Amino acid sequence: MPSIRGHLLGALLLLSPLSSAAPTRKAPKYATLVNRQWSNATYDFIIAGGGIAGLTLADRLTEDPNVSVLVIEAGPFDWGQEGILVPGIFQPWWFFWPNLVSTPEPGLNNRQVGAITGQVVGGGSAINAMVYVRGDTEDYDAWGALQEDSTLSWNDMLPYFLKSETFTEPDAQFAQDANITWNPLVRGSFGPVQYTYPQHSYPGGEVWYNAANAVGLPHIEDPLAGHKAGVFPMPSVLDAATGTRSYAKVNHYDRVSAARPNYHILPSNMVSKVIFREDCKTVRGVEYVPTAGGNATVALASREVILAAGGFNTPKVLQLSGIGPKPLLDKFGIKVISNLPGVGQNLQDQPTLTVPLTFTNNLEPNSNSLNTDPAYAAEQYALYQSDKKGAFTVISSLGTNIAGVSLKQATPDFLDIVAAARAANPADSLPADVDPTVLAGYEAQREIIISQFENENVSVGNLHWGTSDNALVYHLRPLSRGSVNIVSTDPLVNPEINFRTATDPIDQAVYTALFRKNRELFATPEMQALGPAEASPFAEAQTDAEIDALLRDNINPTNAHQCCTAAMMPKSLGGVVDAKQQVYGVSGLRVADISFWPFQTGGSPLGTIYAAAERLADIIKAEYGISSL
Ligand SMILES: Cc1cc2nc3c(=O)[nH]c(=O)nc-3n(C[C@H](O)[C@H](O)[C@H](O)COP(=O)(O)OP(=O)(O)OC[C@H]3O[C@@H](n4cnc5c(N)ncnc54)[C@H](O)[C@@H]3O)c2cc1C
Ligand SMILES: *[C@@H]1O[C@H](CO)[C@@H](O)[C@H](O)[C@H]1NC(C)=O
Ligand SMILES: *[C@@H]1O[C@H](CO)[C@@H](O)[C@H](O)[C@H]1NC(C)=O
Ligand SMILES: *[C@@H]1O[C@H](CO)[C@@H](O)[C@H](O)[C@H]1NC(C)=O
Ligand SMILES: *[C@@H]1O[C@H](CO)[C@@H](O)[C@H](O)[C@H]1NC(C)=O
Ligand SMILES: *[C@@H]1O[C@H](CO)[C@@H](O)[C@H](O)[C@H]1NC(C)=O
């Protein structure tokens, strides 16, 4: 891997000439990887977090050779291991953020669950399941409508989706056989993120596809066109040329780093807080510490600091910097720079349910065959090496089809759920001591989401069958809201994460409908031919009350899609950033990562994060007259 050798060389070059200390220093030239000896270095922009949003922005801002950018990333560089690069091997735990656990979850019988997020250059994109599905048109339109002044909409986002990506068409015969269809007008051709479809399908996938059709989930022509209430093969951020993962380290750093002496990454260090000038308002830079522990150092930003640390850590850095709910900051003796009650609130994920299955007559090969059949695995690995095809192009344990389900498709009683949601008091869904502005923002979101429940084209859930021993039921649009709050002023201590999954009773009603829809799909003659049965205790749960209890025992609150903890909304609605993603009450500070979303979309997050960062890069470039390539 030439890129890795490049990193080592950069690091070695830096060790020699740097002993003299000066009050402010220019960034070192001709090195893309910096180390801590460059304390007090001055950059135009400092980005906290080298994940999807952070590296996309760093790439775009450094297109202007006169603009210097430092990305400080808590995790290390990966070393090109197959568990990251090869989908069929998929070992994400290499770079899970350590010791991240939720509080006992009040809606889930006080279960504590692992909270998952990446800690590595590339962030979640280095370890995610590579599924690329955009949100619904209604999501982006509603995000824009929530703002006081914004052009944000699906039509505004689409050019940025296209700019961010390059779609490689699958082999035509394979596409036809696998029911892969797309609309070229919504597929990008020149952008850094590579995507295509795995060149593989299991026989069970076809059975499931037809069963989905049979229960009213039609074929979706293009899941990236803004609606996907129906069944479709999943696009994957797979580089068709190499057969490997296309992730932010590769597509927004390796791709350009050799030509960008102005683009620096400092890995294995955590931004502990943003620091301000004497006016306690204008950003001066950041303080950071080694992730492994050690003394704090300062880096200075002449223009802006951009937070891109992800849905858990961006609110943590804000709170440690004195930007957050005053009562929380007071509790830890942190000087209040900007009292923003919304920081760390509004936490949402997309909960998942794994339904364990047995089969009397399942088809082979299936998604478990790579584990159980060494001869098959060897043959598939050889095919992968020679042709970039076969089972190793699919993320381990997943299948290749998924279904989006609108509430109407899930249950004929959907209008009863809508009516119950409208009749409920939104305040009952949030903690009793909620700030009134945060409650007002929640009320606004809730109205939008309930209207999405009524819309036959908008998915509220996903169903998936990997083709072996479980089915997955995803809840995409929860009404429950959680929180992320610091528990210490020590930057190395994780915040308290309370998902509060299933605390809103409407979420249980929606999830029950999705769970029953999954059962309906497995009850079709197509699936019954395989002899499926839910394993205990799932099979025994039949009444709504029994299913409610089963869900509370088994829902996983997270699909690692944690978002919305520094939401873009007016301040009067508990917002943290304005329509240009600038943090209220200070100057020179923005939020670029998934934290800025007001609420979850009907898609998987990665595409929206790349595109939103492209859009933000253009906003920032226009403001400072920064040129593009
Ligand atoms: C296992 C897994 C599977 C997933 N599967 C999918 C999928 O199939 N499809 C999909 O669309 N999405 C998926 N996701 C979600 C998706 O990857 C994330 O939503 C996305 O990466 C978030 O992007 P981001 O830029 O907001 O933050 P991230 O990509 O999470 O980047 C944040 C970065 O900031 C760093 N950081 C945190 N705190 C600090 C600090 N104080 N200082 C410096 N650096 C810091 C972190 O180490 C991290 O690298 C998955 C995620 C995971 C973890
Ligand atoms: C960095 O700046 C601080 C004052 O802001 C100073 O005390 C310190 O010595 C400087 N460090 C280096 C390495 O220049
Ligand atoms: C580059 O930046 C310097 C100061 O940092 C400025 O004087 C010069 O005009 C800039 N050049 C361009 C092309 O923007
Ligand atoms: C593709 O769709 C057709 C008709 O909708 C169906 O008969 C066929 O089985 C499907 N094939 C796969 C691989 O899903
Ligand atoms: C941290 O700073 C203290 C006090 O300045 C110093 O004694 C110590 O050696 C430093 N530790 C490291 C790891 O640099
Ligand atoms: C759903 O989509 C269909 C087909 O595009 C359209 O006719 C219908 O009006 C849409 N329904 C809603 C509620 O937008």
Polypeptide structure, described:
- The chain starts with a helix and ends in a 5-residue tail after the last helix.
- It is globular and about 70 Å long.
- Strands 1, 2, 3, 9, 10, 11, 12 and 22 form an eight-stranded mixed β-sheet that branches.
- It is an alpha/beta fold.
- The relative contact order is 0.18.
- 31% of the residues lie in helices and 16% in strands.
- It contains 19 helices and 22 strands.
- β11 and β12 form a beta hairpin.
- The protein has a domain at 166-246 and 348-482 and 500-554: Glucose Oxidase, domain 3 (2-Layer Sandwich).
- Belongs to the GMC oxidoreductase family.
- This is GMC oxidoreductase.
- InterPro entries: FAD/NAD-bd_sf, GMC_OxRdtase, GMC_OxRdtase_N, GMC_OxRtase_C.
- GO terms for molecular function: flavin adenine dinucleotide binding; oxidoreductase activity, acting on CH-OH group of donors.
- FAD binds at residues 120, 128-131, 271.
Walk me through the topology.
Blueprint: H1 2-15, E1 25-26, E2 41-48, H2 52-61, E3 69-72, H3 82-85, H4 137-145, H5 154-164, E4 165-167, H6 172-177, E5 193-195, H7 203-214, E6 231-233, E7 238-239, E8 244-245, H8 248-257, E9 263-266, E10 269-276, E11 283-290, E12 297-307, H9 310-320, E13 323-324, H10 326-331, E14 338-339, E15 352-359, H11 369-372, H12 374-387, E16 401-406, H13 407-410, H14 414-423, H15 436-454, E17 459-465, E18 470-475, E19 483-485, E20 496-498, H16 505-522, H17 525-528, E21 532-534, H18 544-554, E22 589-591, H19 605-624
Parallel strand pairs: 1-2, 2-3, 2-12, 3-9, 4-5, 12-22, 13-14
Antiparallel strand pairs: 6-16, 7-8, 10-11, 11-12, 15-18, 15-21, 16-17, 17-18, 19-20
Bound molecules: flavin-adenine dinucleotide and 2-acetamido-2-deoxy-beta-D-glucopyranose (NAG) (5 copies).
